[in-house]
């Protein structure tokens, strides 16, 4: 799935499916810096991450998932 990736001021990555509009809830996060786009197999991500995107339209990438997203932005494609 193509994802738009942003960074909050605290460095946390925010991931939004590219087919969605930017969720209104993200306006509370403060300014977001675009990081890039990634084509990522969501099967690589934990269920909670995928469920958050489905429920709110975005998810936070933390820890090892942050690194996975950053690599996916760098390579443009990452799959299982």
Describe the protein in words.
It contains 2 helices and 4 strands; from the N terminus they run E-E-E-H-E-H. The longest helix is centred in the last third of the chain and has 12 residues, at 64-75. It has a 4-stranded antiparallel sheet. It starts with a strand and ends in a 5-residue tail after the last helix. The protein has a domain at 38-80. With 80 residues, the chain is α+β, with helices and mostly antiparallel strands.
- Average per-residue pLDDT, rounded, comes to 85
Uncertain ranges: none
Order of helices and strands: EEEHEH
Hey, roughly how much beta strand do the residues contain? 25-35%
The biggest beta sheet is recorded as: 4 strands, antiparallel
**Overall body shape:** globular
Rg, rounded, reads: 11 Å
Question: Outline of this structure?
Answer:
The chain has 80 residues and is an alpha+beta fold. The protein is 28% helix and 26% strand.
